[in-house]
Amino acid sequence: QVQLEESGGGLVQAGGSLRLTCTASTLSFSSYHLGWFRQAPGKEEEFVAAIRWTGHSTYGDAVKGRFTVSRDNTKNTMYLQMNDLRSEDTGVYYCKYLHYWGRGTKVTVTS
Question: 20 to 30 A Cα–Cα from 68, which one of 1, 6, 23, 48?
């Protein structure tokens, strides 16, 4: 059983920044892809970003150029640096490892 724990969410004004963290309890962390997803109130889940074990990253169209995903395999941790936040970025952000999901961290962007 793998446990994922997100942190770093909060309340921020539009144009501001936040850094989310996802920590995993697994010894195989470095071998697999990782992803960030989000769900806004009343909306479907949306892909945000993913990072391969090689370090190659991909992003959803809505966040390209503003968000950066990274990982530190020595700490079993993945990060999501979010800059130039907009009200439409509001939602609960989840990290995913294989078929495991964290409980999410809430991000609220006020305009």
Answer: 1
**Is 55 in contact with 39 (CB distance < 8 Å)?**
no
**CA distance linking residue 48 with residue 98, whole number of Å:** 16
Of the candidates 37, 33, 61, 64, the one whose C-alpha atom is nearest the C-alpha of residue 48 is 37
Nearest to 85 by CA among 22, 8, 23, 24: 8
Structure-token match 């990982």, residue found: 71
Give the pairing of strands 100-101 and 91-97. Answer: antiparallel
